[in-house]
Amino acid sequence: MKIGCPKEVKEHEYRVGLIPAAVKAYVDAGHSVIVQKGAGAGSGILDAEYAVAGAGIVDSAEEIWASADMIVKVKEPLPQEFRHLRRGQIVYTYFHFAADERLTRVCLEKGISAVAYETVQESDGTLPLLKPMSEVAGRMAPLVASYFLTKVQGGRGLLPTGVPGVAPADVLVVGGGTVGSHAAQVAAGLGAKVTILDINADRLEELGKFLPANVFPVFGDSFNLEKGLREAVIVIGAVLITGARAPKLIKREHLQIMKPGAVLVDVAIDQGGCAETSRPTTHGDPVYVVDGIIHYCVANMPGAYARTSTFALNNRTIRYGLQLAHDGVAAACRNSPAIRKGLNLHAGRITFKPVAEAFGLEEEYTPVEDVIA
Questions:
Q1: Distance CA 187, CA 251 (A)
Q2: What is the CATH number of the domain that holds 56?
Q3: Is the domain of 206 the same as that of 87?
Q4: Which residues contact residue 197 at a Cβ distance below 8 angstroms, ignoring those fewer than 6 apart?
Q5: Contact of 75 with 11, CB cutoff 8 Å
Q6: What percent of the chain has pLDDT above 70?
Q7: Distance CA 48, CA 116 (A)
Q8: Looking at the structure, do residues 152 and 291 belong to the same domain, yes or no?
Q9: DSSP letter for each residue of 131-193
Q10: Is 12 noted as a catalytic residue in this protein?
Q11: What is the mean pLDDT of the chain?
Q12: Same-domain check for residues 300 and 311
């Protein structure tokens, strides 16, 4: 199979779909790989490194999209890339379809096989391709919040660590999954008092066993959510329903009970955000203010730490990518339940039900087992 890796076109997206080690793994398995010139520059990877690993270097994204059987990316195709999509081509990347109806309809019309990193799921419920970026975004969240909490950035002017005689910041983390637990660890490491909410009592018990003593796992009912919002100067939204739109847990009226100058980091923005007032932002223009609350809603947070993120992601994606390249999408889905969960669209049909439900497209839905039979 011919594998193609174009340069990412999203604003301030410096990650890349393949690293040289991944290229070599595909080549050693008998596949050919082409990489767009300069695709790895943002992650500190030279074209010469790809060439040594066995990749062909091409000047244009058009050539890659036109000739590759499988495209390996990081972010979803953007409107300027829609014209390249073609029926039968495997596109292996983050899609987050449930947050983007236009993207869903275009990919459906084009007939691509969309294997979404974020819904590849093992039998134990883990999301191996979402996890590394969730870890990066979770660890980033308290750091960026601390920066925008400074008075010069319009924040409350409170140092999260505190100093002798002045209490540290209160931090609220909404969601106790991978993003939430990593955010809580970093916030706790800064010395903040951290409350982490979740509705799974077993998960709360688990969090209590490994998180530091200044992290308090609390059941995430509406009472405790409002209490946390009143007290916190940093709020981190870390809610996830696999492949579906994030629930809007933080309402517009909740902003009125928050402290002026508090910072809301909505890591769930890739799936639509968990606050009613959240909308996607970019690294070039990362924040906006609603009712005195600073909103940070960058939809590709890990792109800021591109090299770390690129290598962490490739360490996970290569395993499933090799299987897709070896078997083809239908056989790979038959042979791997995890990849089967990752197939969101195939041959003009939606194969992941939460995507169909997000936009009332149930008539376009066919169970993946029927599509690949």
A1: 24
A2: 3.40.50.720
A3: no
A4: 172, 173, 174, 175, 176, 218, 219, 220, 224, 225, 228
A5: no
A6: 100
A7: 29
A8: yes
A9: HHHHHHHHHHHHHHHHHHTSGGGTS----TT-BTTB---EEEEE--SHHHHHHHHHHHHTT-E
A10: no
A11: 96
A12: no
Same domain for 288 and 335? no
Which one is catalytic: 96, 182, 254, 346?
96
Secondary structure (3-state) at 219: strand
pTM here is 0.92
Q: Where are the beta strands (DSSP E) in the chain?
A: 2-5, 32-36, 56-58, 70-72, 90-93, 113-116, 170-174, 193-198, 215-219, 234-237, 263-266, 287-290, 293-296, 343-346, 349-350
Mark whether 346 is an active-site residue.
no
Do 201 and 265 lie in one domain? The reply is: yes
Domain count of the chain? 2
Enclosing domain of residue 201? 131-304
Residue 153 Cα distances to 56, 64, 212, angstroms? 45, 42, 29
Catalytic residue among 100, 270, 295, 346: 270
**Residue 372: pLDDT over 90:** no
Do 329 and 227 belong together in one domain? no
8 three-class SS: coil
